[in-house]
Amino acid sequence: MKEYPAIKFLDLKAINQGFEPELTRMLLKISQSGQFVNGEISEKFEKNFANYIGTEHCISLGNGTNALELILKAYMVMGILGKKDEILVPANTFFATFLAISNQGLVPVPVEPDPSTFNICVSSLEQKINKKTRGLLLVHLFGRNAYSDKIKHLVEKHGLKLIEDNAQAVGSIYNETRTGALGHAAAHSFYPTKNLGALGDAGAVTTNDLELATTVRALGNYGGKEKYVFECLGTHSKMDEIQAGVLNVKLPYLDESNRLRNEIARTYLTEIDSIYLTLPKTPEQNQSLSHTWHLFTILVSRRENLIRHLSKMGIETTIHYPIPPHLQPVYSHTNFGPLPITEKIHNETLSIPLNPILTKAEIKYIIDTINNWNGK
Ligand SMILES: Cc1ncc(COP(=O)(O)O)c(C=O)c1O
Predict the structure, then answer these.
(1) pLDDT tens digits along 8-27
(2) Positive/negative CA dihedral, 5, 11, 16, 19
(3) Does the reported pTM lie above 0.90?
(4) 3-class secondary structure, 120
(5) Cα separation of 296 and 261, whole Å?
(6) For 320-345, what is the mean pLDDT?
(7) How sure is the predictor about 4, in pLDDT bands with cuts at 50, 70 and 90?
(8) Tell me, which fold does domain 253-371 have in CATH?
(9) Residue 223: φ, ψ to 5°
(10) Which of 34, 141, 196, 270 is the most exposed place for a label (fewest CB within 10 A)?
(11) 46 vs 59: CA distance, rounded Å
């Protein structure tokens, strides 16, 4: 039987190997320090990450979902958002973005995306703004910046809070400003598969708003700014020293690894020429990091056939995401209105391997295997 190369969708073991021996040295140092939470390593990460993103404040948290939730909750504590206020959100995002809104008693208002970029469609966005609209949760999906001057204009015109979901786009840049510093506040995820991935769950909020930063920090500390004094009903969410240490080791390499992702994406965009699928549109500012290619996602109507073909040839793929948030069972009693573009995307979307450790030979093999597929 012919042997085909096995190309994993994402080989986290091999990716983390690339940070040795620095990573193990850091882990050992923390293990021997006796300080596992609320220490100087997470404090250092907050400084490093705020500096990298370009904001005054960074609050390190347990995961990206908490980061989204605590921004929204903080705005409620501050009296800026109230129950039942409407928050605009791209309909094709990961479920956690919706969850964070619904969990605060706010109303997610899904907006259709542009299928060529997978990001929110600005003209559809404008149509959904009404008197109850208070915020826009802008997701930079698959690593691509979703912000634009048009969005800036709409947010200012309607007095909305602009919250970025930067879980997938760390390192992306719009006009010299990094995603995560474009709005009033941003949530980041360092889930292990992300472009900047921890060795477990971790997340953060970045903002230039001191009151918001202080409130988010208190909310993550059970609701208290001081030890054992609680002003509001918060939760418990913090990044531990181990995750912060790992991220401190990895952060200096992030731009280079995003550059490599861009190179691979450009190769895919120029060399994949199958008539059976649609490639994502090339970003306008291709040379800068306007897209950090967390995922390389194509549209293919005969998706099951392509998955089978690639799998037979030893190439692993993933679907992001099989069911859109508005069709999840938990929302079965909510009428979000028709979202045909989102549903078509979810029926046809397929992510092929793209990560900085793919070899030239693997990239060529993936391209050839896709181009040789006859649609069956
Ligand atoms: C777009 C988006 N938002 C939010 C999250 C939630 O982040 P976490 O898994 O760290 O809670 C994720 C991560 O999976 C994500 O991809």
Answers:
(1) 999 999 999 999 999 999 99
(2) positive
(3) yes
(4) strand
(5) 9
(6) 96
(7) confident
(8) Aspartate Aminotransferase, domain 1 (3.90.1150)
(9) 115, 15
(10) 34
(11) 6
Span 15-252: which CATH code?
3.40.640.10
Tokens of 328: 């999840």
342 CA distance to ligand 1 middle (Å): 19
CA 205 → CA 17, 25, 199, 214, distances in Å? Answer: 28, 27, 19, 11
Integer Cα distance of 316 and 7 in angstroms: 6
For the chain, give every domain's residue range: 15-252, 253-371
CA of 375 to the centre of ligand 1 (A): 33
Q: pLDDT tens digits for 135-160?
A: 999 999 999 999 999 999 999 999 99
Strand order, beta sheet including 185-189 = 57-61, 203-207, 185-189, 161-165, 133-139, 86-90, 107-111
DSSP 6-62: -B-S--HHHHHHTTTTHHHHHHHHHHHHS--SSSHHHHHHHHHHHHHHT-SEEEEES
Q: Is 110 helix (H, G, I), strand (E, B) or coil?
A: strand
Q: 49 pLDDT exceeds 80?
A: yes
270: Cβ contacts below 8 Å, ≥ 6 apart: none
Dist. CA 321–CA 335, nearest whole Å:
20
Specify the ligand 1 atom closest to the Cα of 190: 10
Which of 179, 189, 194 to mutate for ligand 1's pocket (most ligand atoms within 8 Å of CB)? 189
* φ, ψ for residue 226, nearest 5 deg: -105, 160
